[in-house]
Structure prediction request, 270 residues.
Amino acid sequence: MKLVFPNGEHAPVILAMGVTRLGSDPDSTIVLARPGVLARHFEIHTNASGANVQRPETAGALSVNGRPVVGMMALRNGDQLAFAGITARFLTIEATRPAPGVAPGAPKENSTAAEDVGATRVRAAAPRFVLRGVSGAVFGKTYAITGPTVLGRASECDISIPVDEISRRHAIVRPNPDGLMVEDLGSSNGSFINNRRVQTGQLLPGDELRLDQVRLMLVAPGTELQQAQQQTRPTTEAAPVTVGPRWIKPLAGFVILASLAFIVVLVLSR
Prediction:
C-alpha cells in the first residue's frame, strides 16, 4: 500500500504497518510544509487487512472521493484524498503488466532497478499492544494494535472474525497510554471486559476482551520481555548465611561444658 501525489507535492510513500501521520509538523511521517496544511492534518492506520484514514478533531478539512471525512473512514484501492488544495491517491495493487516488448515471465535485466517504485519506505514501529486469541476461531492468533481497529464479522473489518454470533461491526479498540479503550458498536450480543458487559471501557494488559463467546487477551510485548529479563537476571548479592535453630542448643551446651571444665582445672591446680 502506498500514497502517491500526482502533482508532485511529495514523493510516493509506501505505507508501513502502523500509523502514518501527515502534516506540517517536522515530526510527521509525511511532512508537507504548505499553506493550509496543519501540524497534524490526518493519519492513516495500516494493518494486514487494509487501511483507515482518521481525521483528528482539531485537524484540517479532508475528503475522500469528494466525501468529507468525519472521524475515521476505510480506504480502498484508488481512493483520492483531497486536503488544503492537495490531491493524493491511495493504492494497494502494484502494476504487474510487463513493459512493452518484454514477454510475460521474461527475466528482468536489473531486478533491483525494476523493483524500485520510487517510493520512500517508512520504517514500521513495533506494536505496543497485541490482542492474543484464547478461544474459538481466534485461538492462537495474535493481532498487533497500532491504531483504531474495528473487530467484527465483516471481511472489511480490521480484524475479521467469521463467527455468526459476532456482529458485522462489533467493536472498535483504540490504543492509549494504559492499554486499549474498547467501544461497542451496537452489537447484538455485547462486548465484555473480564466478563463485565461494557459500552465503553478500558482494557489493560492481562485483561480479557470477549465478543459474545470469542475471547482475546491484551498483552504488551515490551512489558513481557522486560519481566522475563528481570526473572532470568542472575543475583549478584550473596544470600545471608544464617545459623539454623538446630545448632543453637549444641553450641550453647559445648560453651557451658568448656567453661565448667576450665573452672575445675583452676580449682584442682591450687
